[in-house]
Structures are given as structure tokens and as C-alpha cells.
Amino acid sequence: MPGRIGVSEQTASVWRTATLTEIRRETPRASTFRFAVPGWPGHVPGQHLMVRLTAGDGYTAQRHYSIASAPDDSGHIELTLDHVSDGEVSGWFHTVARPGDRIEVRGPLSGFFAWPGDRPALLLGAGSGVVPLMSMVRHHRARGLALPLRLLASARRPEDLIYGREYGAETTAVFTRSAAAGVPVGRMAAAHVAPLLAQQPPGGWEAYVCGSNSFAEHASRLLVAAGQPVERIRIERFG
After folding, report:
1. In the predicted model, what is the mean pLDDT of residues 24-43?
2. pLDDT at position 8, please?
3. DSSP secondary structure letters along 139-159
4. Is the previous residue joined to 41 through a cis bond, with omega within 30 degrees of 0?
């Protein structure tokens, strides 16, 4: 059974200078930040990195962020960040950062949540939890992979759905607060998950769940109730 992707400790321990090249608004509270990173060793979809900001007086702040972009050889990576109220680092990104600014990054980190594109993937994400999952979707498209991939993406409202303009037939959006006329509103439920488990691809799904603690617990229970083996559920949670 597929397991953890190996991560080079030597590579992951190196701090690299990343130059901000582009900022794209995704939702009223989330933006994507594209960086040029000379010497970037490449990553596997689902991995994350450490970001370090250093103030003029030497004070530093560090945070872990999932990588949103698919692996390629462009020397660029993308991070998509929510603007967290009173967030020290996200606040800098959303109110101060401009193209040309430089930060430090270290990674890629973590092999547990990584998906190299070698098995069918069932992805469940809520809010900014879709960020590492979008790296998987983009990788799947860029490589033209024939392996099945499905994404259930939950957001409060259509305008809050990160990457909303980019999703295709592989994605089902679930809205918990409001939606367009005729679109059901409510929490992700068995009705969303069970049909995907009822018609599994050969070898079954490898499930990836990312979101808040409450969403991760809820989505995991839905998967297990629908018949997904516990040992084939990978969870990345925050908050």
C-alpha cells in the first residue's frame, strides 16, 4: 500500500530566498502569491513549506503553508493564503507585500499528505483546506493522468470558494450558508460521499481530507461510514 513520500532532511533544512512575482485575488479574503525560488528542488502535490519573514530589527516570524501549484520546472511556486484576523504573517502578505519583495522559504516538507499521481485520489476540502488539494488537481491535469480523481470542495458561499473559476468536472462544490437559486445548501453529507464510494475505481480510493479540525473529523466520519478504510484516509488539519 502506498505510504509516506520520502523527504530529504538536507534539502528540507535549507532556507532559500523567494521573490514575489505576482499576486492574484481568489476570494474577498484569499489571494494567491507566486514566487520565483532559485534552486527550488521541486515538490510532490500535497506538501507544504515553511515561510520566514524577518523585520528590520531582526524579529522573525515563521508559518507553515501548503503549496498550491503543481510541480513543474519553472522555478516558481504558489501559496494561497486567507487573510486571518490579527494574523501576523498573513496580515503582512495581504496588506504589505508587493511584487519584488523577498522572503525565505524552507522545504518541501512532509511526505504523509503527498500524492504523486500513482493511485486514484478522493479529495475533501473546506475553506483554505482546498489549497494542497488544488496542487493535486493541477498535477492531474498537467500530466493528463488517466487515474480517477474527484474533489468535494466546501465553502460558505460561491464567492468564498477558492479557485472557483478553475474547477472542472472532477469537482463538486458544497455550500453551507448560501448558493445560487436551485443549488442545495448545507454541510457536506453522506449524499455527497457515498456515491463515490459505491462505485470505486480498481484498487479503491486514497482519500485526502484537509480543513479545520471540525471539518476533518466530520469528513473522515463520512468516509468511514461510506466504507473507506481508515488506513487509507490522510488528514491535514488546521485551527
Report:
1. 97
2. 66
3. HHHHTT--S-EEEEEEESSGG
4. no
Evaluate if residue 7 carries a pLDDT over 60: no
Residue with cell string 486567507: 82
* The model's pTM: 0.95
How crowded is the C-beta side of 125, counted as CA atoms within 13 Å? 27
Residue 27 has pLDDT above 90, yes or no: yes
Strand order in the sheet with 60-66: 60-66, 48-54, 102-109, 15-27, 30-36, 76-82
Report the pLDDT value the prediction gives residue 238, as an integer from 0 to 100: 85
* Of 61, 60, 103, nearest in space to 79 by CA: 103
Phi-psi region of 222 (alpha: psi -120 to 50; beta: other; left: phi over 0): alpha
| Chain-centroid distance, C-alpha 62 | 19
CB distance 206 to 122 below 8 Å: yes
Residues 89, 93, 97, 101, Cα dihedral to 10°: 70
Residue 3 has pLDDT above 70, yes or no: no
Q: Between residues 238 and 76, which one has the greater pLDDT?
A: 76
Grid cell in block for residue 131: 489549497
Nearest in space to 130 (alpha carbons), one of 187, 206, 212: 212
3-state SS class at 176: coil
User: In whole angstroms, how far apart are CA 151 and each of 22, 44, 214?
Assistant: 27, 18, 19
